[in-house]
Amino acid sequence: MKTVEFVYNASPIFVKKLLLNLEALRRNRFRRYGNFVALKKQYTLSYYNLPYSERLKLQEKKVITVLNDVVHHVPFFSFIKKEEPSIKLEKLPVIKKNDLRKNTSSFFHQKKKKRDFWVGHTSGSTGTPLQYYSEKSGVRIKYAILDNYYNLFGCSYGEKRIRISGAKILQPTKDHPPYWIYNKVDNQLQMSAYHLSDTTAKDYLNKILSFQPNYITGHINSIYHLARYAKKKGIQMKSLKAVFMDSEGGMSEQIRLVEKVFDCPVIGDYGTSEVGLIAVLCREKNYHVLDRTVKVEILDEHDQPIEAGEPGRIIVTDLKQTGFPYIRYDTGDWGSVGFVNCPCGWDGSVIKNIEGRCDEMIITPSGKKLTRLSYITKPGLGIKESQIAHVAPDEIIVRIVPDDDFLESSLKNIEKEIHQIIGKEMKYSFDIVASIKRTKNHKFKHVVKEF
Ligand SMILES: [Zn+2]
């Protein structure tokens, strides 16, 4: 465990609150620095009022600019002949998470400094732990677009909001409220998704009612849990303008119930930690591709394009930044792309049937609902893929596909993570395997139930 995490976990609640606020300040130095108002204007979503054909031409130009830049300054792409008059994106190899993990240093732009990057950790939808980098300027653009997107639904950054997520803000053994910490920097009440159960739902709901947020963001599974409880108790929410669900998405029956009980639209984005926003959900429930800042391709298993409307692997090229470029990057997700003249007024391509985002949850014997279990294998080293199999009510198996540089001793860190997230009420074991079985759609599932 990193020292800072250790200090945080061992601290009393008022110190946790202070540390949480300091972390929010640190993040905002990456997200909202400089003249952020001007940047928001520059990245207004009214850009998408331009005809789609015109936007595609602009996108093509941007792709060429990005490629010319990386060919000259990013070592990984030095295999492309510099004298080539026009480099074709389609001719470049698809880059997988594992390629990035093994060649990290060769992806850095030679003209940028280390301090220009945000360093993050993810294991995404394939369970491959990855330390990734994003150029600060790209992170800032992501948040400008996100703010503009929130504005469409009458919500603004800085207004009272609640976030329910898997951020480990409290000890997993904590068994009495508060299960939340107020972050003054963002005017956000951060609630712990890990402590939400049928027994604690009442405490969460009472707090939401007294806090009166303008909007809620976070895991749809947790928000749905609260909506179900509220419905059972006949509680109707009136103050909310919207619920923004995180990228893992939700099932339509969950969304319908939350919209009814919380009396507001449920929307959200689709994206990955590395690339940022890829598409945003409109009120008509279409995921509109943000073609100004990202190019999406759908490919088959042999990296060949698939006909429009047919499902395949979602491959993205980031057009926001080249400091640590994501070019033809394999998201690990599965979906299809189609064209719509959407009644919301936004014409263009939309992503449909995104799979790999509705992680199954695990319900522990005491009734705790655990989601976003990808955190568990994050501290493992040299793991190609991993899967958490729920094999009995009180038992999980963590399957691991090792890579050449697999470090068995890092399993100890995963064990610590299991204790943190699941507690001691479930048995666990590791299974080192050669490969992980896919679903019939060739889709990888990080969490599976097998009883
Ligand atoms: Zn729409």
Task: Present the secondary structure layout.
Elements: H1 3-10, H2 13-31, H3 36-42, H4 52-73, H5 97-102, E1 117-122, E2 130-135, H6 136-151, E3 161-165, E4 180-183, E5 188-192, H7 201-211, E6 215-218, H8 220-232, E7 242-245, H9 252-262, E8 266-272, E9 276-281, E10 287-289, E11 294-299, E12 312-318, E13 329-341, E14 347-355, E15 362-363, E16 369-370, E17 383-392, E18 395-402, H10 411-422, E19 427-432, E20 447-449
Parallel strand pairs: 3-5, 3-6, 6-7, 7-8, 17-20, 18-19
Antiparallel strand pairs: 1-2, 4-5, 8-9, 9-10, 10-14, 11-12, 12-13, 13-14, 15-16, 17-18
Helix pairs in contact: 3-6, 7-8, 8-9
Name the descriptors.
single chain, 451 residues, alpha/beta, Rossmann fold, GMP Synthetase, Chain A, domain 3, 3 domains, 12-stranded mixed beta sheet, 4-stranded mixed beta sheet, 10 helices, binds zinc ion
What is the domain tally?
A: 3
The CATH architecture of the largest domain can be named as 3-Layer(aba) Sandwich
Q: How far is it from the N-terminal to the C-terminal residue, by CA?
A: 33 Å
Q: How many E-type strands?
A: 20
- The chain-level structural class is alpha/beta
* CATH topology group of the largest domain: Rossmann fold
The dominant shape is globular
Low-pLDDT parts are none
What does this structure look like?
This protein is α/β, with parallel strands linked by helices. It folds into 3 domains: 3-31 and 154-264, Rossmann fold (3-Layer(aba) Sandwich), CATH 3.40.50; 36-146 and 270-355, Rossmann fold (3-Layer(aba) Sandwich), CATH 3.40.50.12780; 362-449, GMP Synthetase, Chain A, domain 3. The chain has helices spanning 3-10, 13-31, 36-42, 52-73, 97-102, 136-151, 201-211, 220-232, 252-262, 411-422; strands spanning 117-122, 130-135, 161-165, 180-183, 188-192, 215-218, 242-245, 266-272, 276-281, 287-289, 294-299, 312-318, 329-341, 347-355, 362-363, 369-370, 383-392, 395-402, 427-432, 447-449. Strands 4-5-3-6-7-8-9-10-14-13-12-11 form a 12-stranded mixed sheet, sandwiched between helices. A 4-stranded mixed sheet has the order 19-18-17-20, with no helix packed on it. A two-stranded antiparallel ribbon has the order 1-2. The two termini are 33 Å apart. The structure holds zinc ion. Zinc ion is lined by residues 282, 284, 286, 288, 342, 344, 346.
